Amino acid sequence: MKAVILAGGSGTRLYPVTIATNKHFLPIYNKPMIYYPLSLVMLLGIKDVLFIINPEDLENFKKLFKDGSHLGMNIDYKIQEKPNGLAEGLILAEDFIGNDNICYMLGDNIFFGHDIVKIMKEAKEEIEKNGGAYVFGYYVKDPERFGIVEFDEKGNVLSLEEKPKNPKSNYAVVGMYFYDNKAVQIAKNIKPSDRGELEITSVNEEYLRQNKLKVKLLGRGFAWFDAGTHDSFLEAGEFIETIENKTGLMVGCIEEIAYRNGWISKEELLKLAEPLKKTGYGQYLVGLANE
Q: Domain Nucleotidyl transferase: where (predicted)?
């Protein structure tokens, strides 16, 4: 399985902050927003990652992640000329994906929970074994802002709807999707919505029509932030700060994950820590190497 992380878009919901800066570089507490979805991909053991990005952001992404080899990974980039919808990323990633299945992540979504990696691994295994699509639902108080999933009394999925004016449920489909290889062709065949975009909800609807869509609900033990608004952005940062200060452990530390995965050595970890030695982040990495 390969991972595709969407990190383009115009970030208009965070204006004026993002007029001159891509939102994915903004800090969620002590690290860039984009570290968090990348860290989850790494925790799944996925080494091959493609970032879908804006043309003007390519150099900064390369400055941040290079080709991924310093993390024991293979990181590549694909330009999205303009934001034509989340599903377009699947089309742009076609050559990168090849014949593999796909972990598809939104770069501004932050997840936390004791079993988050476990349920992601279950989704990955389900797709690799049986194909189809596997997505996640989360209860929200403002469902008109999201893609919404409707269930019957037995928990079967009845419908999906993107940003509905009259939501049929309060369960939003969050920005973490697992697809078999057919997702690329499905994305190619969907039509733009009334908003003029290729909606990821349309891809999920096609899997639903084929009876190949699984939805797992994330309950009260999980936190999810769509950090694309000012309020949610601040909430996510405060949440991560609280967790890290209480536990002394970092959330979304990509160097730590690479080290614990055995992708880099102790010496390589210390080398990554060197330019960060004046920060708590760098000192944390040094502490890991000295455990």
A: 2-241
- Tell me the CA distances in angstroms from 64 to 20, 61, 75, 79, 257, one per residue in order: 17, 5, 11, 16, 16
Cα–Cα distance for residue pair 154/61, rounded to 1 Å? 45
**Are 97 and 227 part of one and the same domain?**
yes
Please, which pLDDT band fits residue 224 given cuts at 50, 70 and 90? very high
Distance of CA 243 to the CA centre of its chain: 20
The domain that contains 220 carries what CATH number? 3.90.550.10
Q: Give tens-digit pLDDT for 240-253.
A: 999 999 999 999 99
The rounded distance, in Å, linking the Cα atoms of 1 and 86 is: 19
The Cβ of residue 256 has, within 10 Å, a number of other Cβ atoms equal to 19
C-alpha–C-alpha distance, residues 154 and 151, integer Å: 8
Which range of residues forms the domain containing residue 289? 253-291
pLDDT of residue 28: 97
> Both 38 and 102 in a single domain?
yes
